[in-house]
Amino acid sequence: MALPDDFLPLTNIPGSLRESLGKAKERLDEALTQADNLAELKKMERPSDTWQALSQTRREQLVRVLACSTFAGDTLARYPDWLAFLEAEGELDAALDEAALTQVLTDALDSAEDEAQMQAALRRFRRARMLGIIWRDLNPPSGYGMWDTAASVSRLAEICLEGALVWLEAHFAPRWGVPAPREDGSPQRLVVLGMGKLGAGELNLSSDIDLIFAFPEKGTTQEGKREYDHQEYFTRLGQKLIAALDAITADGFVFRVDMRLRPLGEGGPLVGSFNMMTSYYQDQGREWERYAMLKARPVAGDLDAGAELLARLRPFIYRRYLDFGAIESLREMKALINREVRRKEIQDNIKLGPGGIREVEFVVQVFQLIRGGRDTELQVPSLRTALQRLPELELLPQVVVDELGEDYVFLRNLEHALQAQEDRQTQTLPEDSLNRERLALAMSHPEQSYDDWTALDAQLREVRERIRRHFDAVIADPEEEAETPVDASDSDDEIPLDEWRAAWRGELTQEESHRLFEGTGFAAPEEALRRLKTLRQSRAVQGMQRIGQERLEALMPLLLAAITDSEAPDTALERTLPLIEAVLRRTAYLALLRENPDALKHLIALCTASPWIAEQLARHPVLLDELLSPDTLYSPADKARLTDELRQTLGRVPEEDEEAQLEALRIFKHAQVLHVAASDIAGARTLMKVSDYLTFIAEVVLEQVLRMAWRHLTRKHGLPQHRDGGQHSEPNFLIVGYGKLGGIELGYGSDLDLVFIHDAATQGTTDGKRAIDNGVFFTRLGQRIIHLLTAITPAGALYDVDMRLRPSGNSGLLVTSLESFADYQRNHAWTWEHQALVRARVVAGSSELAERFSAVRREVLGRERDPEALRQEVVKMRHKMREHLGSSAKQREQGKFDLKHDAGGMIDIEFLSQYAVLLHGFQTPDLLAWSDNVRILETLESSGCMPDEDARRLREAYLAYRHIGHRNALTKSGTRVEASDYQEYRQVVETLWQRWLEPETI
Fold first, then answer.
1. For 923, what's the count of Cα atoms within 13 Å in the CB-facing half-sphere?
2. Residues near 151 by Cβ (< 8 Å), separated by ≥ 6?
3. Are 321 and 620 in contact (CB under 8 A)?
4. N or C end of the chain: which has fewer CB within 10 A?
5. Handedness of CA 505, 508, 510, 515 (dihedral sign)
6. Would you state the pLDDT for residue 487?
7. HSE on the CB side for 447, CA within 13 Å?
8. What stretches of 721-800 adopt beta strand conformation (E)?
9. Is the separation of the CB atoms in 51 and 32 below 8 Å?
10. pTM to 2 decimals?
11. CA of 675: how far to CAs of 281, 320, 600, in Å?
12. Are residues 273 and 231 in contact, defined by beta-carbon separation less than 8 angstroms?
């Protein structure tokens, strides 16, 4: 029965679409009439009755669907009873969940007895779901958007793939058998990797699905009529799976399948073993294949095995650290895109044309390729997720990400509207007015309405212009930028990069080279030219591969130009060339410096100021990554931020991979020390803050090393028995810092004076399967901590460690109980050991045990002592140290002064402070609260133990010595300085030393 003439509400339908809408209604009337006749013969409810019972809202939705989608109209005309079914199931308002969809398909496939019936069931299932998806896309429920449509199509593809695969496996098992189990006994299935938008879970309405097939291990099938090699079995199965989805039958198709992304493309095998795949990508994988594999995700078959395969391929997809070596390839891809968009025939293509979908995807994937190895948050196939994570990683401003996200959604909505018209994969805008108006209607919704195609086209142009602007900004060529003067008036004095390129290559005459270098600020141009020639003709440079040569050739002109902008070009060149030589075999770093002119500028400034920094960077080139973020480079983190950053850093490394965790920890430590040094050089931090930050870094590292060592030992041996008889999961263990660490006065390159203390039961054992005595456990724990701190790897060591301050020194136990430590300090320790205890404090471990240690420390230091005996012991030890560590007579004659060890130096001030604490601690407990000299001196002053003027002058001298000590460490000048420069401070210290400790010499 035909529908009434006024059945479709036309109020919101443009007049230009009403004629085509009328034709759609005629087809529906014919289909419903036939369906009604058939229903009457079968004495069933007439479909037209269901249609006429539709609510006004449903009719308004229906008219939009019919006006915008010929595919939907044809589907409803072919299956008029589907509308009632979809409404009853709720699919017009929300997608069925995965389990419900899977059950619907399983029920349909259960009755299929051959491939033809299976294919027919798949196609009807897909067509019904697509009708619901298009309906929701054109009539979005509240909160529904493009990403929901993309997710629904992706889920549909995955369910179809899995359903077809399961049916095919069962159908051919009697003939082909089943694959042999893996070596571990687990069954084998085909692994189906989804690539592109399927891998991302973001398919468009009518998309190809890009697939790669793999299987875990070689073998032969079992339980079939004949045996097949796994390669042949999975190839046959893969071919059948492709046909199940891709073949066009009377019912249409399910999804078009594209297998060209597999290894070797169309010329390669359809399916490969895991070993073959891993070997191919490691040995032959190209940059575009890395780009493609960013989206890879297991979508059907053995999903766990698929995840295993991708874990194997991760080192190929994501380089371990920042991968600026990929930029040349990405720039070539970008140039190819630009060449394509200049072709007139794709100007109207919203995917491939200028400012199209592909350009947004390129922007995001550039960051994934370059940064994904270090910023593992970007190791996701979803473009939406990766894009949203760029601001928090400070890779793109939030405003840019918001623009790209909104514009991408606009283009994808437009793409869906285009494809919904005919269920055809197209991204080309129509030329005829009818289909343009259909697009304008499809894109109109309550928040944004388009009166006609002209209004929609205007919005589209704005969107594409914004996207193109952001696309142009990504990986722009720095050499092109350097060749373009900011101000034409300044360009006359600019040395062209070609001139520096010729100088690097040795193409200038000696006179031309000399004039160029002398004219740009080099004090010794001949020496500079000699250095360049030595590098250029070195074996390391001559033996470089082509790509490395190209990167070096691209960097050197930029490097030389940047060096001439420094305050001391000769020094800058001398200190940066060893770094360049150090990274010749790791040429991604050459690319990093070329691609980031600001990083190059910071590098030259830091190396010019500090040979220590230059050496650190040459020794650990991975630190060059830090130059990319000036905000953090010159702003060292406080302890809370350090703890959080380390947690995030190690969170990206599997906990069970201790080697990788330790390597990440070393790089973290080196990077954080670089931040402190950079801020120190820039004058952004006071002396006290520099030592604070260096000490914070050590504390955070020690806390992590203790966790790692504890985890390692307890996994093997279980938990040690606590003195209360129980087992505690948290370490009942302390790392006590002495010396500069304890005094919160660490410098660059300081070693760590440590003492280890535990609080376990003396006679107890661990509770693991491989139980050991508590004493053995804690000794191994201490040894493990030392190993983790001192082991040398490509990233160097964490710290040098000195354990000689433990009870009985090198002859004593490596780890002692708190009870034994207290007994030693009370009854056996020398005066110099009590002096050392003044500087001791807990830096890692149990907070409860730390309080008890502090109580022991206060008790020992707070004892009343014989003043004269104490004075004699302190003076005796100080004279012994001067004799062994101070300047020689010859050095003193040459006017040299050792800041640390000579009379009037830092050690004298430290001994004075320690002497005062031991002398007055029993009367002035406030002195026992501190382990650092500055606050001890302040407390001596505030308590009246030392005259105000004396304490102030000692503090000034001490801070001055420490300041020059830090500076000399950065400039590698040593601790010996000109005595005349520090005569005033030295005189103050010597005078007070004599007054307090050697009055008889006055």
1. 8
2. 201, 202
3. no
4. C
5. negative
6. 39
7. 7
8. 733-738, 752-758
9. yes
10. 0.70
11. 37, 22, 16
12. yes
